[in-house]
Amino acid sequence: MKLCDTEAVLDSLRRNQGVVSDNEAFERELIWMKEKMGKLERERTLLNTNYDSLEQDYQVLQKEMEELHKQLTVARNTQPTPSMQPTPVSQSKISVHNSMSSESAHEERNDLKQNTNSSESSINKGENSLCERLIKVEREKNELKLKQRALNVPAEKRLCLIEEELKVTNGKVASLRQELWSVQASKCMDSTVCEMNTKTHGAIIVASQMLSMTITPAVVLCWNFKFLI
User: Fold this and answer.
1) Is 79 left (phi over 0), alpha (psi -120 to 50) or beta?
2) What is the DSSP letter of 126?
3) Terminus of the chain with fewer CB atoms < 10 Å: N or C?
4) ∠ Cα 212 223 216 (to 5°)
5) Nearby residues of 140 by Cβ (< 8 Å), 6 or more positions away
6) Which residue, 183, 202, 151, is CA-closest to 30?
7) Model confidence over 85-141: pLDDT tens digits?
8) What phi and psi values does residue 7 have, to the nearest 5 degrees?
9) Could you report how far apart the first and last alpha carbons of the chain are, in Å?
10) Which residues contact 59 (CB under 8 A, 6 or more apart)?
């Protein structure tokens, strides 16, 4: 009964101090923070995926540029064979063709450079934007961690107070149990003493009866012996 009363008092103290309601609010805040952190983690995964796709596109563009450089090198190193002696007309045609091919190659090279520069600039912009978003996500994540730690501090203090209250209550319960055991032990001792007193009283009565039975014949015998004398 005392234990139940003590638990009821402790529960009422907790409710009056607002521990239960604060813990529920803290749990809701913690769930919201976990959901937000999960959303940020998913966004970060998506950003990493986009970054990987941009890296793959950049590698493909580099391979294409290397192939074009190889083709350009092969075209430059191509020379006419000695067996083919060009005539003046063919020489002029060849010179015109070479000039046109060099111009087209120059234009292709310029186009390739422009495409490469535009692709590199777009890749750099994408990398910069991704880096900025990653930095922002990391900053928000760190802020959430700090906020979570700040919210954990009062909850840990309240938990320590509750643990101290439980220790005090457990001490009181232990003392109450010890007191109950001592009371029960004293009751058992009293019943044992009463039983022993009853048995002793009965033994005294039996001994007195036996003594009276023994003394009476002896007195009669002495009386008869005196009468004979």
Assistant:
1) beta
2) H
3) C
4) 10
5) 40
6) 151
7) 445 545 555 565 566 666 666 677 777 777 777 666 666 676 677 777 778 787 877
8) -65, -40
9) 83
10) none
Question: Token pair for residue 125?
Answer: 């912009």
* Cα 218 to Cα 44, 117, 164, 204, distances in angstroms: 119, 146, 81, 21
What letter represents residue 106's amino acid? H
CB 80 within 8 A of CB 94: yes
Answer for the pair 116, 60: CB distance below 8 angstroms, yes or no: no
DSSP H stretches of helix in the chain: 2-17, 19-77, 88-228
CB-based burial of residue 45 (10 Å sphere; 0-12 exposed, 13-18 middle, 19+ buried)? Answer: exposed
pTM for this prediction: 0.27
Residue type, 218: A
Amino acid at 31: I
CA angle, 41 as apex, 36 and 46 as ends, to 5°?
125
Instruction: Give residue 54's Cα distance to chain centre.
Output: 35
Integer Cα distance of 5 and 11 in angstroms? 10
